Amino acid sequence: MTKYIFVTGGVVSSLGKGIASASIGLVLKSRGFKVTIQKLDPYINVDPGTMSPYQHGEVYVTEDGAETDLDLGHYERFTGLTMTQANNVTAGRIYYSVIAKERRGEYLGKTVQVVPHITDAIKAAITSLAAKDRVDVVIVEVGGTVGDIEGLPFLEAIRQLRNELGRGNSINIHLTLVPYIKAADELKTKPTQHSVGKLREIGLQAEVLICRTEKPFSESVREKIAQFCNVEPEAVIQALDVEDIYEVPLMFTKQKLDDTILKLLGLERPSHDLTEWKTRVVDRALHPKRRVAIAVVGKYVQLQDAYKSIYEALRHGGLANDAGVDILKVSAERVTKANVAELLDGASGILVPGGFGHRGIEGKLDAIAYARERKIPFFGICLGMQCAAIEFARNVAGLAGANSTEFDANTPHPVISLLEEQKRVTDLGGTMRLGAMPCRVAPGTKAHEAYGLAEVRERHRHRYEFNNRYRDAFAQKGMIVSGVYEKADLVELIELDDHPWFIAGQFHPEFRSQPLAPHPLFRAFVGACLKKTSDT
Ligand code: GLN
């Protein structure tokens, strides 16, 4: 029988529920359990694909082409599991399916209500995941904070489900904050007591508390929390701020969180083995042999979460080279021809990530021109690849005014444009070219050298494509097409002949990079940046 772990959050948002859930997933997997992780998001959008990074942070794309919450990125990176659309359920998706059912007449005669119809649909979304994968443990992370109005149907569904599953088959892990009040020199447990009380009002009892705290707490604080919140003292976990997020699983096992969870769920398995995680990820991340600075030139660099997977993948590329990567965040809108050298000073490599809309494009083009001319390693991703093509068209191939039709519908040289099928699209949600597709990698190219494979699969999320009309003109000037999607003859990878490392891809390699399996292109890119550092 599948066991369930429901992870909720209280007091404030941004406590790191996603990283906690991913870490629990890794720890249970390391004890030999088959696990999966699901994220429930209480917003009404069907998926985060239509939300701005200001609202939501990165949109994480799965193999099957679902546009999902960035926590699924943590799940994949920590556990190595493959997430799908079913691992991310939003209120919007649930309502959409219930309303469609109502229109089909499947509830004929009934009033369709939050309880039981919406809650039934939520329960079905949770339990069907376990049935599909025959897992031992499903970790279900509930987005938002206990007390949010929009989270109520999800918590009610969980209350019902816990009741139906019976005692010992599910637990609720609640993440809270134990703030330190400087003036009193004290850690305060009251917000945690209130938050657990709020959960109880909804009918949910937390069995484990993960307490985020800046300062280690004493036994008496632990006992006080345990007593007032109805949990065992060993189930009160201190989650101190760590230097590196990849330390969290080790912090949990040190406090025997895995033993506590298994005991509560009535499961038994030998102890965990996190040696590989410790030596190959944590130790290397904390004590790299050397360091390298890489600039990311993007529109949303002031937000922590907008390029999450890119930043993580760069760190993985660092791990593979036993190097720490210092990321220099450069706002594309600030970059001009006049200041580019100054803004990118000290960077041994330049990465231009994906994006939408014309804001910041000219700055990205200036940064790419700088990387190309000064022979600085360059990595372009999705929009970054499209910009590399535009820059090359304008400054090398002599095509003045070249652009993507996304930014200039009347450009004389549409080097990036829409395919016919995309021109017919009217709904913007979920209609991009999405998910993993094969890419044939040309032998003798730098991409091939990095991958060591003739065919790879990479994830996509874009509408516009390289315009094949310009392939020959580009080739004559030294831009090689090093990867194609053969089925539709689409350009997937381009690179420069006379440059130490200049690769740009239409897909998003960052989504497939993991600390234990750094992505080959990120590994090679960071390697090239390190070489640049030692050469200069
Ligand atoms: N805006 C571009 C497109 O839609 C690039 C998208 C991206 O970078 N993810 O094709």
Q: Structural class, from secondary structure content? A: alpha/beta
* Average pLDDT over all residues: 95
Specify the helix fraction band.
Answer: 25-40%
- Largest β-sheet summary: 9 strands, mixed
Spatial extent as radius of gyration: 25 Å
List cofactors, ions and other ligands: glutamine
- Adjacency order of strands in the biggest sheet: 13-12-14-15-23-22-21-18-19
**If helices are DSSP runs of H or I spanning 4 or more residues, what is the number of helices?**
19
Oligomer: single chain
What percentage of amino acids are in beta strands?
Answer: 15-25%
Total strands: the figure is 23
Principal-axis shape? globular
Defining key terms:
536 residues; alpha/beta; 9-stranded mixed beta sheet; 7-stranded parallel beta sheet; 19 helices; 23 strands; globular; binds glutamine
How is this structure best described in words?
This protein has 536 residues and is α/β, with parallel strands linked by helices. 37% of the residues lie in helices and 23% in strands. The protein is built from 19 helices and 23 strands. A 9-stranded mixed beta sheet has the order 13-12-14-15-23-22-21-18-19, with helices on both faces. A 7-stranded parallel beta sheet has the order 5-2-6-1-7-10-11, with helices on both faces. β12 (290-298), α12 (308-320) and β13 form a beta-alpha-beta unit. The protein is globular, with a radius of gyration of 25 Å. The N and C termini lie far apart (60 Å).
